[in-house]
Structure formats: structure tokens, C-alpha cells
Design goal:
alpha/beta
Length: about 325
């Protein structure tokens, strides 16, 4: 399937995947509810990774599995779309991160929920422990609290003389207060300017606020909206000539300066194993939460040049990918 056709299919609210006309469709397909922020095109690589993981385990779209996609534009839409998936009685709900897990958790205590990139599942109470999740929720974790603190350290390497740093965080994300506290606890000799951004409509005002406060760099605490609206975020950073640290490679590919974080596509691919085990009868309560094992440091030298920043050679040597 060509990528354009794939993205077109993703755009629908509920998608039954295409399959060969020679294949025999069974009477019952396993239904996977998929809940995430749109647009669908912004999430294509993660969905492709999940699909690849499922294919490796023997699942063929339209033959023995079908996806019910629900894309949201704001957190206010999440409860209703989560409830829709519950009313459809899907077999598993794939809720990408804590933002999606919370409304899904409130909507059902019986349908298994798998997360692919939860920042702090124990800290926000979505699982009892990593080893024994309990309840109906499990999946992959990337431990955002530790990552955010590390990201601040790396940003300080890029702008070593910065005394004032902006922190863009999302008050609608359950894990962000703990991540902000972790960043604030770093003893790096900088003053933080905390700026809440709940939607893309908050982006412009956030950069105006940072410019007014004289920040010399900023850190974005990763969230669904900063991932899905990454192009706009990169445009504003360049327009205001502010070096930014992001939580995903995709933000840097879109034009951001630097990122450090878990490989989100790898997490999506590995979450397929949870879906497989649950469809074969395993209970989420008995499936341990697994940690991200691949982390990426990505630097965009084109953006660095546009901002007039000389990235330290020692940092470039540590980078997993350099975009020139």
C-alpha cells in the first residue's frame, strides 16, 4: 500500500482495513479501538509501526483484525470518543499516552487498555506497579519525569550561558506536574519561566510570553498536542529565534533544534505484543509494564545555523542522528 493511500485510510473515524479479494473473511474480527490526537497524517509513522508489529505476530488487517480509529482535536473530545469505543465493545483499546488512558479508564473497567508511550503509569495511578499492573491497563512506559530532567541538562549544554529558560507544559496531561517538578529540581543555575499550553491556540501567546520574559532557550515537556502540531511549534521557535529542546525526533525533523527521548515508533511496535497476548486470553493485570529501551538524541544543524548556535562537538559526537 502506498503511503498516501495509507494516510487517506487513517483519516476516517472508523477504518476497516483493505485485504486481498482472494482472502476469506472470518465471521468475527478482533476489534482494536485506537484513541489519539489527530490529524491522522501526523501519527502515520506510529500507526505503521504498530501495524508492522501486529503483522509480525500474524495479524492481517481485514482478515483477522480491524481497527476503529478515533482522532481528537482537543482533550474535551476524549471522553465521548472513548465512550464510543466502549459502546462498540471493542476487544482492546490502544490509548497512546496518559492523556488518552485517563478518559478510557473512566469509560471502562472491563475492556483491556494498552498504552504505547505512557510517561508515568505508576505515578498517576493508572497501574498499581510496573511488575503487577492490576486492573485492565498495561503497556509501554518512557518515564517522562527522568527524561525531562535529562533534557534540561542537554539544553544547558547547547546554551551554556542561558540564565532564563522557558518550560512549555500542558496542564491537561496527567503526568506533566511531576515532570515539571523534576525539571525545577535540576540545579543548573537557571530561572524557569513556566508557560502552560493546552492547545495549539496557546502556542503564539506562549512564545510572546517567553520573548517578553527574556528567555534564552526553552524546553517542551512532550505531549500529544506538541507532537501532532510540531510543524507550527518549530515555525514559532525560528520566528522568535529561540533554541528549543523537544521530547521526540519528529519535532526535530519538523524543524526543531534538538530532542532527546524514547523512540516512539519502537514503543508502538512493541505494544503490538500486548494486543496479541490479550487477544489470546491474557489479562492486562498480569502483563508487566515494559520500559523503553531505545532513546534518541537528534540535532538539526540547519536549525542551529539559522539560530546562530554552535552546537558543541562533544554533543554532536553523542547524537544518534544529525540533520544537516
Amino acid at each position: 500500500m502506498r503511503r498516501r493511500e495509507f494516510i487517506t485510510l487513517l483519516g476516517g473515524g472508523a477504518v476497516a482495513w483493505p485485504f486481498s479479494g482472494r482472502a476469506q473473511q472470518p465471521a468475527i474480527l478482533a476489534q482494536i479501538g485506537f484513541l489519539d490526537f489527530g490529524p491522522a497524517s501526523a501519527q502515520a509513522s506510529r500507526v505503521e509501526a504498530l501495524q508492522g508489529g501486529l503483522r509480525d505476530l500474524g495479524y492481517v488487517e481485514g482478515k483477522n483484525i480491524v481497527f476503529r480509529f478515533r482522532w481528537v482535536e482537543s482533550v474535551e473530545q476524549l471522553p465521548e470518543l472513548a465512550a464510543q469505543l466502549v459502546r462498540m465493545n471493542v476487544d482492546v483499546i490502544l490509548a497512546m499516552s496518559s492523556t488518552m488512558v485517563e478518559p478510557a479508564r473512566r469509560a471502562t473497567k472491563t475492556i483491556p487498555i494498552v498504552f504505547a508511550a505512557h510517561a508515568d503509569p505508576v505515578g498517576v495511578g493508572h497501574v498499581a506497579s510496573l511488575a503487577r499492573p492490576g486492573g485492565n491497563i498495561t503497556g509501554m512506559s518512557m518515564l517522562l519525569t527522568e527524561l525531562a530532567a535529562k533534557e534540561m541538562e542537554i539544553l544547558k549544554e547547547v546554551v551554556p550561558h542561558a540564565m532564563r529558560v522557558g518550560v512549555l507544559w500542558n496542564p491537561t496531561v496527567p503526568t506533566h506536574p511531576r515532570a515539571v517538578n523534576a525539571v525545577a529540581g535540576e540545579k543548573l543555575g537557571v530561572r524557569l519561566h513556566l508557560v502552560p499550553i493546552a492547545t495549539v491556540d496557546d502556542f503564539d501567546g506562549a512564545f510572546v510570553s517567553m520573548s517578553r520574559e527574556g528567555v534564552e532557550g526553552f524546553l517542551v515537556v512532550a505531549s500529544p498536542v506538541t507532537f501532532s502540531q510540531r510543524a507550527r511549534l518549530a515555525e514559532l521557535a525560528l520566528a522568535h529565534r529561540l533554541p528549543g529542546m523537544f521530547g521526540s525526533k519528529e519535532n526535530v525533523v519538523a524543524g526543531g533544534l534538538i530532542s532527546y527521548g524514547a523512540d516512539l515508533n519502537d514503543l508502538a511496535r512493541r505494544s503490538a505484543a500486548y494486543i496479541d497476548k490479550i487477544l489470546k486470553g491474557a489479562k492486562p493485570a498480569d502483563l508487566p509494564v515494559e520500559q523503553a529501551s531505545k532513546y534518541q538524541l537528534v540535532i538539526n544543524l540547519k536549525t542551529a545555523k539559522a539560530l546562530g548556535i554552535d552546537v558543541p562537538p562533544t554533543l554532536l559526537a553523542r547524537a544518534d542522528e544529525v540533520i544537516e
